[in-house]
Amino acid sequence: EPEVTQTPSHQVTQMGQEVILRCVPISNHLYFYWYRQILGQKVEFLVSFYNNEISEKSEIFDDQFSVERPDGSNFTLKIRSTKLEDSAMYFCASSEPLSPLHFGNGTRLTVT
Amino acid sequence: AQSVTQLDSQVPVFEEAPVELRCNYSSSVSVYLFWYVQYPNQGLQLLLKYLSGSTLVESINGFEAEFNKSQTSFHLRKPSVHISDTAEYFCAVTEANFNKFYFGSGTKLNVKP
Questions:
Q1: Series of mean pLDDT values for 10-residue runs along chain A (112 residues)
Q2: A103 and B99 in contact by Cβ < 8 A?
Q3: Paired strand residues for A48
């Protein structure tokens, strides 16, 4: 069965550094998402992306965050200047139109 | 905006006992409902979904959930749990455009021998 793949599985970075989290969605999916889960808390929506533009974003997704689909397969989340509170598990998901999300295994981001 | 409430953060249960994990959502507009399961160090996997039709939906591994519009609930049940069902379960809701899925805070199911 096709999968959403995320790299790296764990990223450690220093406060203020830029990080790029990478995702390869399922190949025929058109809708892409980023969610995050701070340890022990709920899964939070960050952003949805369709047709090379953001469809919707949450209040968490401020100017420090950006997403990009640089080629036909990758979907990236960039955090420009990381803060301690950005430490979380970041999940990429993709879907077909009007269909459930398919999630990757996540990237654990630790900001020190 | 939607909100999803999973009142039970942890549910301990013995193997072969029945279990119900509760989920309530806030909005009365047309919604689509999902349960996801997360095993340790893995992503969320779709367990079952309600999009339309019969209000009782089933998964391949014996779980079922019933959409109750009047009570805005979508509780997950299994008549007899296995050790392998130990995981965290998330209820999720989306509206017609599927732009945004709202998740509950999760329920950790711990099945004991």
A1: 90 97 94 92 92 93 94 93 96 93 95 97
A2: no
A3: A33, A56
B65 contacts in chain A (CB < 8 Å)? none
How far is Cα A105 from Cα B41, in angstroms, rounded to an integer? 7
Q: How many residues does chain B have?
A: 113
* Backbone φ and ψ of B83, nearest 5°: -55, -40
What are the E-state strand segments in chain A? 5-7, 10-13, 19-24, 31-37, 43-50, 53-57, 65-68, 75-79, 88-95, 102-103, 107-111
Q: Under an 8 A CB cutoff, do B104 and A42 touch?
A: yes
- Buried b / exposed e across A6-29, counting CB within 10 Å, b at 16+? beeeebebeeeeebebbbbbbeeb
> What distance in Å separates the CA atoms of residue B34 and residue A24, rounded to the nearest whole number?
23
What pLDDT, on the 0 to 100 scale, is given for residue B28?
A: 65
Q: Decide: helix, strand or coil at residue A4.
A: coil
